Amino acid sequence: TKEAEELWQQAIMNYDKAVQLSWNSPQALNNWGLGLQELSAIVPAKDKQKIIKTAISKFRSAIQLQFDFHRAIYNLGTVLYGLAEDTSRSGGADNSPSDLYSQSAIYVAAAHALKPNYSVYRSALRLVRSMLPLPYLKVGYLTAPPADDPIAPHKLWERSQFILNHEELQQVNTSESAPAKSNGLVEKTKRFIKVDVADIVSVSTCSDLTLPPGAGLCINTTHGPVFLVAESWESLDGWLDAIRL
């Protein structure tokens, strides 16, 4: 109803004020996200996706302040699941429904890992378990330079598949470029990028002009930085969270 929408709008304004007063409070950001999630359920369809994306950003901000904040992690999983449902019915999102379902499952599984005794998390995990990119934490595409030349010209960067598990982020041999051949001989064995999770110091977005166009990802490691480019800024958020969690 219009009255309910106005009440949630007022509540969201109060959450906004709470965050301004306590900008480093993950709980305040989580509450703001929950308010937006509730509002998205009652507004006209044309307004829904913008509100949902804002809710996603609030949950992500809460997680960035406290990586083990299981409530925000779970809430991010539920809002992504809802977005996947909406996208499968009507389209319109930057990511495919299957990618959104997979992201949702990762966050629900992470929340369950932090609080395995929570019955709500157990039930949710049963619902989304089949959507997990098992045996990995995340599978997707990133544009990467040659492993032996991180500052190679843009034309030498390739879009290829990466997998993330508990031990490493690994480029796999599924590059979209066909293997180069010369005089009937296959080019010498290609090296692939591998980053050990134990060596990661931090991960962040990167808008360095020396990178190819797209959403830049910087992984700072004990051996130096690794630069990659995600397919979109939303896709980049998924990689950032998966590596951090």
From TrEMBL:
<protein>
    <recommendedName>
        <fullName>PH domain-containing protein</fullName>
    </recommendedName>
</protein>
<dbReference type="InterPro" id="IPR001849">
    <property type="entry name" value="PH_domain"/>
</dbReference>
<dbReference type="InterPro" id="IPR053277">
    <property type="entry name" value="Endomembrane_traffic_mod"/>
</dbReference>
<dbReference type="InterPro" id="IPR011990">
    <property type="entry name" value="TPR-like_helical_dom_sf"/>
</dbReference>
<dbReference type="Pfam" id="PF06552">
    <property type="entry name" value="TOM20_plant"/>
</dbReference>
<feature type="domain" description="PH">
    <location>
        <begin position="135"/>
        <end position="245"/>
    </location>
</feature>
